[in-house]
Design goal:
Pfam families: HTH_30 (PF13556), PucR (PF07905). This is PucR family transcriptional regulator. It is built from 17 helices and 15 strands. It is an alpha/beta fold. It has 4 domains: 102 residues, HprK N-terminal domain-like (Udp-n-acetylmuramoylalanyl-d-glutamate--2,6- Diaminopimelate Ligase, Chain: A, domain 1, 3-Layer(aba) Sandwich); 104 residues, Beta-Lactamase, CATH 3.30.450; 116 residues, Alpha-Beta Plaits, CATH 3.30.70; 82 residues. The chain has a 5-stranded mixed beta sheet. 39% of the residues are buried.
Length: 477
């Protein structure tokens, strides 16, 4: 703990002649000088020792020292002055600058030695704390609890709120959990910290933002500035998180096709073999019955959701039909859509391995419905029954295959058709939702008519196409 003027005065028996209220300031160093203006030789935080040989105008002298940000004055008596000059004591009192009287029996070297020893002890304690903190973080990072465990460990080590934010600005982890609310105010500040670090005041706290390469940001918020040891510990955590996230990206890239293959096997007619393989290859995956969650959104949002599922051990996840499908023990849709923007989810609970094909299909259909209604989550159980549920999965799939076969290989046409039908044939609103010019949309719909060989003016064809498009997401045609 840094040595304060109050502690120094008590230890050495130095009378306080002014500035009592500021005695709790830490002393950064000690400097003895008889210059009338020593400002050029000071860095701030020093206890300045003098016997007042050059003291003439006390007010100007104190003003210069205050401007140089000295911690206080140690005035030696018994040599040039028998006592602290009243003018100096009065000026220091007005400025709130601590003024300690140094009796002749206490040589300046004793003060220098005391401060040097305190600083050395403080630096050693800081070094030990840094080393222990780095070791604790490294052990945590080497465990299997994911980045969230590193975030929680860091929060306890530096006694601050810690957030792990992805590249899109979504809070992935927060310690304590209530700290996630700080993420809403971070958006404008993240752009200036794409590389290196950034320090600012936000919501009454000092906030340190550390970029984690292209994977996101580590954010540390504390009421007071972090000390040197805490800053070193934060830097170590940032390096470990960068490595962990990069390793996670490489691992996901390698395991992604395997995950997708297992899910395809699960919904493709071999559910028991697929379920057994998932349990063997991914020991943390929950056993059926599952709560199935299908997530519809951009690639970055789906990756963020996969990372969140992985870090929280929330279930088995895989890309399937342009969506992220999660097989979880408990519902996770609200958590994922609440923490990651740009996602729409469909959910089905109580799905067995044998019913996985229907469960995944219904969850994906519900995710499409969530997007069309502009709501985060649609639960299949809350939906009114569809004619597709009356005819069964196989019949519905055969119907969709037959009707959509002419356009199924053109993703741009399928999405144009889906969006246009969802907006009841309104060109402007559909084009805006799709992000294209209305003339582009007209050309794509005209191409659909050419390939289908039928006019989309027919209400019956529109209804059939809409039903078929609800089946399409269940697999790649």
């Amino acid at each position: 703990m840094a040595l304060t003027l109050r502690a120094l005065a008590a230890d050495l028996g130095l009378p306080v002649r002014a500035g009592e209220a500021a005695l709790d300031r830490a002393v950064a160093w000690v400097h003895a000088t008889e210059l009338a203006d020593p400002s050029d030789f000071l860095e701030g935080g020093e206890l300045l020792l003098t016997i007042g040989l050059a003291l003439s105008d006390a007010d100007s002298y104190v003003a210069r020292l205050v401007a140089a940000d000295v911690a206080g004055i140690g005035f030696g008596v018994g040599l040039g002055h028998d006592r602290v000059p009243p003018a100096l004591a009065e000026a220091a009192a007005k400025a709130g600058l601590p003024l300690l009287e140094v009796p002749k029996r206490t040589p300046f070297i004793a003060i220098t030695r005391a401060i040097s020893r305190a600083i050395a002890a403080d630096e050693y304690a800081s070094l030990v704390r840094t080393d222990k903190g780095q070791q604790a973080l490294t052990r945590t990072a080497l465990g299997r609890r994911g980045p969230g465990a590193v975030v929680r460990k860091l929060a306890s080590l530096v006694d601050a709120s810690v957030l792990l934010v992805d590249a899109a600005g979504n809070v992935r982890e927060a310690a304590p959990a209530a700290a996630a609310a700080l993420g809403e105010a971070l958006g404008p500040e993240l752009s200036g910290a794409r590389r290196g670090s950034k320090l600012l005041r936000l919501a009454g706290k000092e906030v340190m933002i550390q970029a984690l390469g292209s994977r996101g940001f580590l954010v540390v918020a504390a009421p007071d500035p972090l000390d040197a040891a805490s800053r070193h510990i934060v830097t170590t955590a940032a390096a470990l998180l960068s490595l962990a996230l990069e390793h996670g990206r490489e691992q996901d890239a390698a395991l992604g096709p395997l995950r997708t293959g297992l899910l395809d096997l699960l919904v493709g007619g071999q559910p028991e073999l697929a379920a057994a393989s998932i349990a063997k290859l991914f020991p943390g995956a929950p056993e059926p019955p599952w709560s199935v969650c299908a997530l519809l959104g951009g690639a970055a949002a789906r990756r963020a959701a996969a990372d969140l599922v992985e870090s929280g051990s929330d279930g088995f996840h895989a890309e399937h039909g342009g969506m992220l499908v999660v097989l979880a023990k408990v519902p996770v849709a609200a958590k994922l859509t609440g923490r990651i923007g740009g996602l729409h989810a469909g959910t089905v609970d109580g799905v067995s391995a044998l019913d996985a094909a229907d469960g995944v299909s219904r969850a994906m259909r519900s995710a499409r419905a969530a997007k069309e209604r502009a709501v985060p989550v649609v639960d299949f159980a809350d939906e009114a029954g569809s004619v597709l549920d009356l005819v069964g999965e196989d019949v519905a799939q055969a119907f969709a295959d037959s009707l959509l076969a002419p356009v199924a290989q053109r993703a741009d046409l399928v999405e144009a058709l889906r969006c246009w039908l969802a907006h009841h044939g309104h060109w402007d609103s559909a084009a805006t939702a799709l992000g294209v010019h209305r003339h582009t949309l007209r050309n794509r719909i005209r191409k659909c008519e050419d390939l289908l060989g039928r006019s989309l003016d027919s209400p019956g064809l529109r209804a059939d196409l809409w039903l078929a498009l609800q089946v399409l997401p269940t697999r790649s045609l």
